[in-house]
Design brief:
The chain is α/β, with parallel strands linked by helices and 479 residues long. 38% of the residues lie in helices and 21% in strands. It contains 14 helices and 22 strands. It has helices at 43-62, 65-81, 83-94, 98-119, 157-169, 183-194, 210-219, 232-244, 267-279, 299-311, 331-346, 397-405, 420-429, 464-467, and strands at residues 9-11, 14-16, 23-28, 33-39, 125-128, 135-142, 146-149, 173-176, 202-204, 225-229, 248-252, 257-261, 289-295, 350-353, 368-371, 388-394, 409-410, 412-416, 434-437, 452-453, 456-457, 470-477. α4 runs parallel beside α5 (157-169) and α9 (267-279) crosses α10 (299-311). The radius of gyration is 23 Å and the shape is globular. The protein starts with 8 loop residues before the first strand and ends with a strand. The model has no long low-confidence stretch (mean pLDDT 97). It binds nicotinamide-adenine-dinucleotide. Nicotinamide-adenine-dinucleotide is lined by residues 149-153, 158, 176-179, 210-211, 214, 229-231, 234, 237, 252-255, 286, 383, 411, 451, 456.
Length: 479
Amino acid sequence: MLAEAGTGAYIGGSWVEAGSGRTLEVLDPATERVLASVADAGPADGLAALDAACAAQSDWAASPPRQRAEVLRAAFELLTARAEEMALLITLEMGKPLAESRGEVAYAAEFLRWFAEQAAHVGGTYRQAPAGGQRLITHRQPVGPCLLITPWNFPLAMGTRKVGAAIAAGCTMVLKPSELTPLASMALARVLTEAGLPRGVLNVVTTTEAPALVAPVMADPRLRKVSFTGSTPVGKVLLRQAADNVLRTSMELGGNAALLVFDDADLEAAVEGTMVAKMRNMGQSCVAVNRVLVHRDVAADFTAALAGRMGSLTLGRGTDAGVEVGPLIDARQRSKVAELVRDAVGAGAGTLVGGTAPSRTGFFYEPTVLVDVPTSARIHREEVFGPVAAVTTFADEAEALRIANDTEFGLVGYVFTRDVSRAVRVAEGLETGMVGINQGLVSNPAGPFGGVKQSGLGREGGDEGVEEYLETKYMALAL
Ligand code: NAD
C-alpha cells in the first residue's frame, strides 16, 4: 500500500507501507517522547527494494556521467537551501545541538558536491603492451546494485558519503539507515528525487529487524556490494555473509583514537583540539578521541585547562539556545558510558569533572575528565562513545606511540607538537588510517576517510570514495 511521503519505505520511486503494515517509533532522545512513526520493513520489503535497484541498474549505468553529476549538484543545492529544516530534523531524532546539526548538514551536502565533481572524472587507461603489438585498455564500470548500511550518529552525512559515491559511479542502491534515526535518510531520498534521481536508483528501507532484513539481501546473487558504517562486531557479521557471494565490501567500523600531547605543544591549541575531537556529537563519533595521552611535564596544566572547558559546557535539549551538549542516543549508550567510567575509577583513575548522569529526563551524561587512567582500564580498549576524556601520561615519544598503538582499532590518531619532525615521525608511526596534526578534526569530503586494523576496509570521500563503487574492465586489443 502507498504511504504518505516520508513515513514509508521508499521503493522504486514510491513511498510504501511495510508489507506487514507494522511501524516503528522514532524517539527524541532529549525528551524520550515519540517523534514519528515510520514503516518497519521486513525481509520481503528488503528484497522488493533490491528488485527495484536491480531493475534500475542497467539504465543508470548507461546514463551520462554529466547527468549523475547534475543530479548530485542539484541535491547539494537543495540540501543547502533546506539546511535549517534538515538540521532541526537531525537534532530532534539524534539529539546533537542545533549548531552541530547545521555543521552536519553542511558536511553532508559537501559530499554531494564533491561526488558531483568526481562523477565526470572517472576515466580509464590505454597503453601499448610491453612486447608491442597489442593495446591494453581499461574502462571503469559501476559495481552494480549495492546495500548501504548506516549508523545513527551522523544520520545524514553517513548517508551522503555512501549514496553520493554510488550515484557518481552509476550504481543503484538499497539504503538501510539505523532504526534510531531513519528520518534523515528519508529526507535525503526526497531531496534526491526532487533533484532528478530516476526511480529505483535509491531505495530506502527502515526496520527494527536489521539482521532479518539484511541477511536475504546479502544472500541474493544480484547484490554486488555492501558498504557498512557501524560497529566492528556487526561489520564482522557482514564480512562473513559477504564471503558467500564474494561481495565487494567497504567497512567503516569502530575506533579507539589516541590524542598525543607532547611537552612542546601549543597547550591552548591542544586543549581546543581535544574539545573538538572529544565533544563533537557528545563524543559519539568513530573519530572521537578515546584516550588522551599527555607528556607528564605538561599534564597538570593541560588537564586543569581541559577540565575548566569541559566543566563549563551547557547541557540540554539540542533545540534550546546556548546548549553545547545534547543527550546520548539512548539508555543503553548511557549505561555503557557509566560502566566504563566506573571501571576506570575502580582501576584507580581520578575524576576532575563530571562522572555522573544528571537526574533529568533524556539520556544525558555529564562531560567528564578522568585523570591517571591506567592502561589496564577498559576505556583503553573499548570505544566509550560518550563525553568522557580519559587522560593518561607518558614519559617519551616511544612510550606514547606504544600506548597509542596498543589496540586492535586503527581509525585515527591526533598529535599535538610544535616540532615538525616529531609530528611526521609520530604520524607515520601511528597505526591508523588518518592522523590529525595539531587539530582535532580530520573529516573532509575531499580526504579519504577510513581505517586500518579492525577499524575497517576501504575509504570514503577523497578520490578513493568513487573507486569503491567501480570495477576495472580490461580489454586486450589485437592490432
Ligand atoms: P551498529 O553496528 O549497532 O549499527 C550500524 C547499522 O547496522 C545500523 O543501521 C543497524 O541497524 C545495522 N545492523 C545492526 N546489526 C545488524 C546485522 N546483524 N546485520 C545487518 N545490519 C545490522 O552501530 P551503531 O551503534 O549504529 O553506530 C556506532 C558504531 O559505528 C560505533 O562503533 C562507531 O565507531 C561506528 N562508526 C564508524 C564510522 C566510521 O566511519 N568508521 C562512522 C560512524 C560510526
